[in-house]
TrEMBL record:
Stored Pfam families: Phage_int_M
Native species: Dactylosporangium cerinum
Keywords carried by this UniProt record: DNA integration, DNA recombination, DNA-binding
Sequence ranges of Basic and acidic residues compositional bias: 147-158
Domain Phage integrase central: 9-76
Protein name listed in UniProt: Phage integrase central domain-containing protein
PANTHER family documented for this protein: PROPHAGE INTEGRASE, PROPHAGE INTEGRASE INTS-RELATED
Lineage of the species this protein comes from: Bacteria, Bacillati, Actinomycetota, Actinomycetes, Micromonosporales
Length: 177
């Protein structure tokens, strides 16, 4: 089964650009990126850190292809991508929607479903986590949502609130716009 996720500008805007955006592209080094990884690991699940690192790696790879820089500074870190059970060939690969593809889906959603879709896209939460969220999980001062519960289906077919898939709570950053 294909797992669908959306890459958006939220990740670099909230975490990457504040740390290195002031530097000329060619001056970003492995230590700068290692510092970002360290900060991310202090507040996020390893899978989220891997996603953010992958996004950053892809941005620098694009700069290399466009001959803006000679090499990718992400390759000068000791970051090791976390392995996932879904990495096995029989599980398929991640598929990412483009902003245009997401917009086509959004345009066809019932107006009442659009806020939920936007919340999931901008936070990266799973459906079970987003629909279990409550206002007490939102911290507007820190600009984050604490994901600490999700819907779980019982063997008898009933539903209950339980821990998220990772088994532990995690803060998810939310942007300003």
């Amino acid at each position: 089964m294909w797992e669908h996720e959306v890459r958006n500008e939220q990740q670099p805007r909230d975490w990457i650009l504040p740390a290195i955006g002031h530097l000329p592209l060619g001056e970003v080094g492995g230590p700068d990126l290692a510092a970002i990884i360290k900060k991310l690991r202090a507040v996020m699940a390893e899978t989220t850190v891997t996603r953010y690192f992958s996004c950053t790696h892809a941005m620098f790879e694009a700069a290399v292809r466009e001959k803006k820089i000679d090499d990718n500074p992400c390759k000068r870190t000791d970051f090791k991508r976390q392995s996932f059970a879904a990495d096995t060939p029989d599980e398929g690969e991640h598929v990412y929607l483009t902003p245009a593809e997401y917009r086509r889906i959004w345009d066809n959603l019932h107006h009442a479903a659009r806020p939920l879709a936007d919340f999931m896209i901008h936070t990266g939460t799973r459906f079970s986590e987003a629909t279990a969220a409550s206002p007490d999980q939102v911290n507007t001062t820190k600009r984050q949502v604490m994901v600490d519960k999700a819907w779980k289906k019982e063997k008898d077919g009933s539903w209950r609130i339980g821990p998220p898939k990772s088994g532990k709570k995690r803060p998810v950053p939310v942007g300003t716009g």
